[in-house]
Amino acid sequence: QLAGGVGSAVAELLADTQHTGVALLRLGLPDQFTSHGARAQLLAAAGLDADSIAHRIATFVRAGTTWAVERR
Fold first, then answer.
1. How many C-alpha atoms does 50 have within 13 Å on its Cβ side?
2. What is the pLDDT of residues 26-71, one digit of tens each?
């Protein structure tokens, strides 16, 4: 579970401006204490290393996600 951060701010903005149908993939650290370790190990464990991020984005896009963005 993510709490706060830029993803939450974007989600709130989309909700407040009634932009429906906009898919949002939030990436971040879970809202919990993490163990100690090397930066690379911690990022990989949280799914925030380059390979994990690329995989999550590819899966998100392959899922048929569509975007509807309006200009005002």
1. 0
2. 898 888 888 899 999 999 999 999 999 999 999 988 887 665 555 5
CB 37 within 8 A of CB 49: no
Q: What is the pTM of this model?
A: 0.71
Give every CB contact of residue 28 below 8 A, 6+ residues apart in sequence: 2, 5, 7, 48
Tokens representing 68 are 């509807």
Cα-based distances in Å from 54 to 13, 38, 49, 69: 25, 21, 9, 23
- Residue located via tokens 């190990």: 41
